[in-house]
Amino acid sequence: MAHASTDTAVTVRRLSNVSAVDVTAARADNPAAFGTVSRSILVYAAWASVFAYLAFAFWYFDFARMFQPSENAQRLLAAMFRWEDMATWQYANIYRGIAETLAMAFLGTFLASLVALIVGFLAARNVVRIPVFRHTVRRILDVFRGVDQLVWALVFVRAVGLGPLAGVLAIFISDIGTLSKLYSEAIENIDRKQVEGIKATGAGQVRTIRYGILPQVFPVFLSQSLYFLESNTRSATILGIVGAGGIGMIIIERFRATLYDQVVFVVINVLILVAIIDWVSKKIRMKFIGEVGH
User: Fold this and answer.
1) I need a surface site. Which of 159, 171, 182, 210 has the fewest CB within 10 A?
2) Dmax over Cα atoms in the chain, in whole Å?
3) Which of 214, 216, 147, 135 is nearest to 178 (CA)?
């Protein structure tokens, strides 16, 4: 304890003997450790620009209207939660549309996962050693991923007509771009020692992928595909609004007919469906991947 006190006293005595000249010399020797006036001005100017832009955005988009009483909003909320004539709601059409939406999401995600399983390997740096071919594949994926799913739905509605086929194709094309990118990144981050061990046995490229790479990345692939299934179930609802089939067409029809109570009923059913898919996906992940931390 005495020794520690002595060391502390020496440190305090040395700091007390530091002069302005010493501080100036330290600033000159270590400029990055001390802030400069120009750097402080730049930092404050950047923060001032951010706050000024936020203030302009709040003023431009007139967020104050959200806090003003609106008769239209009050009537809309009242109509949404005042359910009337429930016996005439055509439940068969509603649940047929929900089943169609689920089928769209499942089929589009399943087909996209199968294609991405191949394309992901073609876009991975540690599998394809030809840069020109690999970059070409990635740029094509950028096009698929860069165009929004709703735009793809509009394109396919024009190409194949109204109905769920347009929705399936929109989900399929959009998910190929995203899933292939995620799959290729997972492949590039594998443990190389396992791959080298497989190669040391004299295995070719196909067997190396089958026994050295695929077992490592399959849990990631499964988890991502299940998440996309859940996400695409919600997306398929929106795709139906532009004519791609499913429950979205029923929602937009009820909106146009000002049947807001039925719209709320449909939305509640979609939320229940998404919750069920999330629960099932969790059970599948736990079966094939195991709980996190185990």
Assistant:
1) 159
2) 90
3) 147
Indicate the pTM of the whole model.
0.73
Query: Which pair of structure tokens corresponds to residue 265?
Result: 């009923």
Handedness of CA 217, 219, 223, 229 (dihedral sign): positive
Output the six-digit token pair for 208. 């190396």
- What one-character-per-residue DSSP string does 218-233 give? HHHHHHHHHHHHHHHH
Q: What DSSP state is assigned to residue 35? A: -
- Domains of the chain (ranges; CATH) run 20-77 (no CATH), 91-288 (1.10.3720.10)
How far apart, in Å, are the Cα atoms of 175 and each of 62, 94, 219, 260?
Answer: 36, 27, 18, 32
The pLDDT tens digits along the chain (294 residues) read 444 444 444 444 465 666 777 767 766 777 666 666 777 888 899 999 999 999 998 888 887 777 777 777 777 778 778 887 888 888 888 899 889 999 999 999 999 999 999 998 898 888 888 889 989 999 999 999 888 888 999 999 988 888 889 989 999 999 999 999 999 998 888 888 888 888 888 777 788 888 888 888 888 888 889 889 988 888 888 888 888 878 888 888 888 888 888 888 988 998 999 899 889 888 888 887 765 444
In angstroms, how far is the first alpha carbon of the chain from the final one?
Answer: 45
Structure tokens at 188: 């590039």
